[in-house]
Write a structure and sequence with these properties.
- By secondary structure, the chain is an alpha/beta fold.
- It folds into two domains: 153 residues, Periplasmic binding protein-like II (D-Maltodextrin-Binding Protein, domain 2), CATH 3.40.190; 89 residues, Periplasmic binding protein-like II (D-Maltodextrin-Binding Protein, domain 2, 3-Layer(aba) Sandwich), CATH 3.40.190.
- It is built from ten helices and eleven strands.
- The strands form three sheets. Strands 7-6-8-5-9 form a five-stranded mixed β-sheet. It has a four-stranded antiparallel β-sheet with strand order 3-10-4-11.
- The model has no long low-confidence stretch (mean pLDDT 93).
C-alpha cells in the first residue's frame, strides 16, 4: 500500500504538533510520507489529491469543503496575539489608506483577514501588491508577513508600527482566530491507517505542549523566545474556535470575499 501523505507547514508554529511524531517520541506502527509546504501550497496539494491529510489555511475550507472533512482537536489558532501574522508599517496603520501594502503569497487566510480588518476596523482601502516584505530590507511602506519571516522581522525592530492580526481580531470580536485547520480527503478517511495517523498527531500535540521548554532548546532561533511564542498559540479546535471560524466566514461573505459560508463537516469515527 502507498504511504499516507501527511502535510506540514515549514514554520516553527508546527513544532509542538509534529515533533514527537517525527522524532519517535511516541510509538507508531504506520508509515507515512511528510510533505512540507507553505499553507497555499498544501491547500493546492490537498485539492489535487496529492496529499491525504494536512493543515490548510482556514479560508481554503470554503473551496475544499466538498472534498475534505475537518479533523477534530487540531488547529493553529490564537486567542489574542499570534506573534507570527503581522502587518509591518513605517507609518501609523490609520495612515495606510491608498498606500501600497505588500502581501505574502504564502497564506490566503492571513491576506483575507488583513483586508477584512483594514476595511471594517480602520475603514482603509489599501493598494495590495504581491511580494515578500522580508526581502525589501525595510524599504516598503507596509507589508504582511507570516510564520518565521514575521518572527524575524519583529525581532529586528525595523518597522515602528506593527499590527498583530490575531490580537486585533480578538479585540474586535472577542473570539479566537483560527488561522489553520487540519483536513483530510474524504476518500482517504476510509482507511484505518489515516484514522490512526490523526490519533498519533493528537498524541504528538499532547507530548509537545507538555515539553515546550525542551523543544525551545532544540529549536533555539535567533532572538525569539520560542516557549513564549508557542504559549501564545492555541492548537485546539473547541466550540469557541468554531464560533470564531464561522464569524470569519460570515464577515468574508458580507465583504464579498467569498460567496457562500460553508457548512462545517467533521470526520466521523462511526
Amino acid at each position: 500500500m502507498d504511504k499516507i501523505k501527511l502535510g506540514k507547514f515549514p514554520f516553527l508554529n508546527c513544532v509542538p504538533i509534529y515533533h514527537a511524531l517525527e522524532k519517535g517520541e511516541i510509538q507508531k506502527e504506520i508509515q507515512f510520507e511528510l510533505l512540507v509546504d507553505v499553507p497555499s501550497g498544501l491547500n493546492e496539494r490537498l485539492k489535487k489529491a496529492e496529499c491525504d491529510m494536512a493543515p490548510i489555511s482556514s479560508i481554503a475550507y470554503v473551496d475544499l469543503n466538498e472534498e475534505v472533512f475537518l479533523l477534530p482537536d487540531l488547529s493553529i489558532s490564537a486567542k489574542g496575539e499570534v506573534k507570527s501574522v503581522i502587518l509591518f508599517s513605517q507609518v501609523p496603520i490609520e495612515k495606510l489608506h491608498k498606500q501600497p501594502i505588500f502581501i505574502t503569497r504564502q497564506s490566503a487566510t492571513s491576506i483575507a483577514l488583513l483586508k477584512l480588518l483594514l476595511k471594517e476596523y480602520f475603514c482603509i482601502e489599501a493598494q495590495y501588491r504581491p511580494g515578500e516584505i522580508a526581502q525589501l530590507n525595510g524599504q516598503a511602506v507596509a507589508g504582511l508577513a507570516i510564520g518565521d519571516a514575521a518572527l524575524r522581522i519583529k525581532a529586528k525592530g525595523i518597522y515602528p508600527y506593527q499590527l498583530d492580526l490575531g490580537e486585533l481580531w480578538q479585540k474586535w470580536t472577542g473570539l479566537p482566530f483560527v488561522f489553520g485547520v487540519f483536513a483530510v480527503r474524504k476518500e482517504a478517511w476510509q482507511k484505518k491507517e489515516v484514522k490512526e495517523l490523526w490519533r498519533l498527531l493528537c498524541l504528538s500535540k499532547k507530548w509537545g505542549l507538555s515539553h515546550l521548554e525542551q523543544l525551545a532548546r532544540l529549536y533555539a532561533h535567533e532572538a525569539i523566545d520560542l516557549r513564549q511564542y508557542w504559549q501564545h498559540l492555541d492548537y485546539d479546535l473547541t466550540a469557541l474556535h468554531l464560533e470564531g471560524l464561522k464569524q470569519f466566514f460570515t464577515y468574508l461573505q458580507k465583504n464579498g470575499q467569498i460567496k457562500v459560508v460553508p457548512k462545517i463537516e467533521f470526520a466521523s469515527f462511526s
